[in-house]
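From the shared-data thread, chain only:
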Amino acid sequence: MNNTQPPPAFAATIGLDWADKKHDLWIQAAAGGTPEHRVIEQTPEALHEWVAQVRGRFAGQRIAIAVETSRGAVISALGAYDFIVLFPINPGSLCNYRKAFCVSGAKDDRTDAMLLEEYLRLHWAKLRPLEPDTELTRKLAGLVENRRGLVDERTRLVNQLHSLLKTFYPLMEALFDDLTLPVAAQFLLKWPDLAAVQQATPATLRKFFYGHNCRSDKTLAERLLAIQQARPLTKDPALIEPAVLKVRALAGMLGVLHQAIGQLEARIEQTTDAHPDAAIFRSFPAAGPVMAPRLLVAFGTNRARFASALEAQQFYGIAPVQKQSGQSKVIHMRHRCPKFARQTFHENAGHAVRTPGWAKAFYDQQRTRKKGHHAAVRSVAFKLMRIYFSCWQHRKCYAAGTYEEALKKHGSPLAKLLEKETAAGGE
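Structure, as tokens:
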């Protein structure tokens, strides 16, 4: 087959370089001829008008479009047309492809569109077309990713608070072990410095803590005593007054974030409840209200998406990468992969090893072999993904006993280690 021509299944190949204000397109018809460059505005009307022109020009035959993203409004708009097949191209791959022919590093939108079309036309057989998941799964993906983004933003703000409070208000560190709690932000909004909180009466403070479900008499007594006995780290108004203003600003932003995260978590739970695969992913080890939806999104609902568990492990960077040249061989973690999904599997394994069971026994085994913590957790994630893949493929819920029985049946050293840990725990 002559791979310099568009794939026979498509009437044309198109490279689409999208931007905020315009889209550059490079179009090559399968029938040959001079390629065409077009620019359309970044408006729904312009995009749909161009699609209508393409449909008429190629008589409704299928066309292939290469683009450097797999999500977004443009992808959703183009994906609604049955004659368009989208091929997402990894930006890193296109960057390396560009460098091969332009060592100066020069680039522009027109050239990128041309390279996208060329990359698709010459290497289409090695590329995988985009197969959008169900609407429910895509919605859940957006929800869990947005939640994680807000949680990361909350962590950033809390870290700023830690650094700031140490300079003039160290009492907060003694009162609250975790400043990410909503009660900590509300406390700072009412009493942003030591002088303010020491002016409050014990009755006022008790009412505040009771109102935020902090009802332990022992903890409350310790907090009141700490407030009473605290001494200011500094009395310099030049330091305190600006710091108080920033503390109030950070606490206010944290309050908004707490509310937004709560709303997202409620919507995530509702969406997960409505998903047909929810029970499968909720049965996985350490897959609570946060991890179960994230694991569900990582696998999706298209069972033909991955041919094997190994393919999924490699795609998400859980399987190691081997580089060999001559007598040299290096094995390392894959860096170019969907980071959020890899983080999901890693965090899930990290939670799973904290409770007794085969996952903890395997983690302990890896640690005794001098593996670092994160390397051992990735090893657990590798095993868990194989099990998850099987459950996902066969639409069956996870059962720890099934895997442990399989370990015993095959005489796995892990089964003996698990028996020892179980016996030790029962003594």
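The beta strands are 12-18, 22-29, 36-41, 63-67, 84-88, 321-325, 328-332.
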